[in-house]
Specification:
The protein is built from 14 helices and no strands. It is mostly helical and about 475 residues long. This is Transmembrane amino acid transporter.
């Protein structure tokens, strides 16, 4: 495909050659329209209108996708890296994640028929790349869905003083997630995202205030001298360092989940406003909350961090944040299920029809993704390692590497432009190289950490009744 990008980066208008049913039947040339021929979900011809989300609601959905389980792990990552490198990692990764989110949204809004990151991979790499990216997408949101289920089971453990087997709590959380995730439209779960974001934000704020009011961390020895373990600059091993870096990266890397939401927005062109509002709030919150918790807890910070201020505050925080943890898992399961659902029904009349086939396939998708999330949460029951595994193995290529290539695909002319365009062009190649390094190095570090944790007895056997929420 030729690149028709002007010097200012605006896109030329190319006519639609076919109605956008399957992406294979659509002209994937650049367009400046949001009519039915361009979008996957039609406003006309279907019983169910999916395109009902305002940009404000979209921003709140994005907030809940990003500001979820990640904020609960950054303080313990700062202990490994030190306060200054940790803060630099938060700012640097959030900048790159915002940049990649904008790239993905702009690419999606200028190429017809794109519903997911896999569709965009098809535009730049053909069928084989779409299938590879589709598998990565499903694995990613299965893992982070598992982290939400695990976080909810940790909350139930804390509130009940570990009254029953941890896996029973995971099962209860999974059933709740399945029910919540089965709402078909993002608009219908928008009120859940408001409640979910508010609950997690307030829960974390309660912990932040709680840790500042204690003479010493709740997990530290309560008498005698103790080592706080606060370092401006840490000296981690490669394995510990890369795992912590991957965890911080993962905390804001769920931008590929934004793309299905665009397909349900009233005005997809308002996407950038929603992203900037979301990422601004997330970055400020991550930096301030994590620095305060690490400053007052040091090496005694819990993972998830809601347990860092003692049993009373822990129960209050988990009681407030439980709905947010469930909504996080609900969103991740919903996003993964929606990808499968659209792939299966894209060329069918059942995509937007209240039929038995429509509902059976939709509920089958949400149920299967909920079960996969439960199995992963039970198999890797340490919170940090779940997120670090997602960050290195799947988020790095999805949220960093592929967006870099999407930009290069649409901006080949930058290679022969003025000096700053050439620099930007090769900086995007550098971002792809960074994604490769994080994928290989990060996955190695996380897997080795998991092996070591099993060897040290920090993790009981998979599907055991032990409560591993204290492990960091």
């Amino acid at each position: 495909m030729s690149n028709n990008t002007s010097e200012k980066g605006s896109y030329a208008i190319t006519p639609v050659l076919a109605t956008a049913g399957s992406i294979d039947s659509v002209d994937t040339g650049k367009l400046e329209t949001d009519d039915d021929a361009f979008e996957v979900f039609k406003r006309q011809g279907g019983e169910v209108d999916f395109r009902t989300v305002s940009w404000v609601y979209a921003s709140v959905i994005f907030l809940k996708v990003i500001f979820a389980t990640g904020v609960l792990t950054i303080p313990s990552s700062m202990y490994v890296l030190g306060a200054l490198p940790g803060a630099i990692n938060v700012l640097g990764w959030q900048f790159l994640n915002t940049y990649c989110a904008i790239i993905q949204g702009n690419f999606r809004n200028s190429h017809a028929g794109c519903h997911s990151i896999a569709d965009m991979a098809h535009v730049v790499g053909g069928v084989w790349l779409r299938e590879v990216v589709g598998v990565f997408f499903l694995v990613t949101y299965a893992i982070v869905g598992a982290s939400g289920i695990f976080g909810a089971s940790t909350a139930l453990n804390a509130l009940s003083n570990h009254a029953v087997c941890t896996n029973y709590f995971m099962l209860v959380a999974t059933i709740a997630v399945f029910i919540l995730a089965s709402a078909r439209k993002f608009e219908k779960i928008a009120w859940l995202t408001w409640a979910g974001f508010s609950s997690v934000f307030v829960a974390v704020f309660v912990v932040v205030v709680g840790v500042t009011q204690q003479d010493r961390p709740a997990a530290a020895p309560q008498t005698g001298d103790f080592d706080l373990g606060y370092h401006v600059i840490g000296h981690p091993t490669f394995i510990a360092g890369i795992t912590s870096v991957a965890t911080i990266f993962c905390s804001g890397a769920g931008t590929s989940a934004f793309l299905p939401v665009i397909s349900e927005m009233r005005r997809p062109k308002d996407y950038n406003k929603a992203v900037y509002l979301c990422m601004g709030i997330v970055t400020a919150s991550y930096l301030s909350f994590s620095l305060v918790v690490y400053r007052y807890c040091g090496q005694w910070v819990a993972s998830p961090s809601l347990g860092s201020a003692g049993d009373v505050i822990k129960k209050v925080a988990y009681g407030i944040g439980l709905i947010g943890l469930l909504v996080s898992a609900c969103l991740y399961v919903h996003i993964a299920a929606k990808y499968i659902f659209v792939r299966l029904l894209r060329d069918s009349v059942h995509l937007q029809k209240n039929s038995v086939a429509h509902w059976s396939i939709w509920l089958g998708c949400t149920f299967s993704m909920s079960v996969v999330g439960f199995l992963i949460a039970s198999g890797i029951p340490i919170f940090n390692y779940l997120l670090a595994l997602a960050g290195s193995l799947t988020f790095a290529p999805l949220a960093l590497g592929l967006p870099g290539y999407l930009w290069i695909y649409d901006h080949q002319h930058y290679r022969n432009g003025c000096w700053w365009k050439v620099m930007v062009y090769y900086l995007n190649w550098l971002m792809i190289a960074l994604a490769v390094f994080l994928t290989i190095g990060g996955t190695y570090g996380v897997v080795q950490n998991i092996i070591d944790a099993y060897a040290r007895g920090e993790i009981d056997q998979a599907f055991s009744c032990a409560d591993n929420s204290h492990s960091s």
